[in-house]
Amino acid sequence: MKIHEYQAKELFRKYNIPVPDGQVAFNADEAVQVAQILKTKDNRYVVKAQIHAGGRGKGGGVKVVDSLDGVREAAKQIIGMQLITHQTGPEGKKVKSVLVEEASSIARELYISIVLDRATARPVIMASQDGGMDIEEVAEKTPERIIKEFIHPVIGLQAYQARKIAYALDIPQEGMKDALKLIMNLYKVFMEADCAMVEINPLVVTTDNRVFALDAKVDFDSNALFRHADIVSYRDLDEEDPLEVEASRYNLNYIKLEGNVGCLVNGAGLAMATMDIIKQYGAAPANFLDVGGSATDEALENAFRILLSDETVEVVFINIFGGILRCDKLAEGVVKAARKLEMRLPLVIRMKGTNVDQGKQILADSGIQYAVEETLEAAASKVASFLKQPVA
Ligand code: GDP
Ligand code: MN
Question: Which are the catalytic amino acids?
Fold first, then answer.
């Protein structure tokens, strides 16, 4: 689960990770009020679009201004704009709010983040002296400029490791103590809040050698949200895919994808195999959907409805292994849902496992239109044949 920068900074403050003074505003008047409260000495402010995507600076969503009028103008421009960045996709994202902060005098822009490294099964801190808006290019062209420090999850981040990172970042002596504390606290928030990622880009060194988080990005492990009610309250449903939001209401594992084959599968492994094989046959999945091992009629109907309300879907592919969810139960559920939702799209079904013959009989007697296939290959090939424009 992603959150906004202003929320991430609120979380950082709780963990004594220094961030600039600032507050969120939902319109130009509020933005000016925030700036008046901040009362910076030099009257310089920064107005930043709040969306769940990075690259805002390059997309025109971050403006440094030097007057209250400047704040008003920047807020007017940014709020309501359709902000396009390399992370939003070509349609961009509508901006609903801005973060108004005191502007900082930046000497250097550094990078630091923590993610889980799957290969070593440990948290890893990544850091670079080349932070700022071109970090993707650094990662691609000069990866040696990014250092990594792996952390043993039982003993946690050690002071010597924090020092190693701070030296690698060439933190000036005056800022060293704060930088070390910041790194230790960043690890603390990563672990305690069950984050999938924390990222500070840029971590700045100011002209007077202070070190703090100019930007803040946090992504939480959704599977751990049940123990973080305070964090769940940060959720902004407007920033998420509406179909995914709907699916999460029924505990369905649904992820929207780019293709046009709606997939209804039980089990995450089978769901992934299904996506792979339809790709091999020149089609592409419109979604990942795992209805789970013990899906009820209601869950099946909701899954079906969500899948069908995706307008990009041209063919529906149901691929079920009847284990706990028996094939006859599934067939009943499918028939019921297909009738109720008046499904008109081509439907390909592959079923294996418990009570498969009864399941097939129920489908055959139902009068709904579908094609049934025995093997994954045949089913995938059938799916592709129904598409208006199979992708190469
Ligand atoms: P992102 O592009 O979405 O990652 O947004 P950031 O918060 O990282 O801001 C983008 C860039 O704007 C930063 O890399 C800075 O160069 C610049 N910027 C942001 N805040 C300030 C500020 O207070 N003062 C100055 N001079 N530049 C800033
Ligand atoms: Mn940034």
Answer: 111, 199
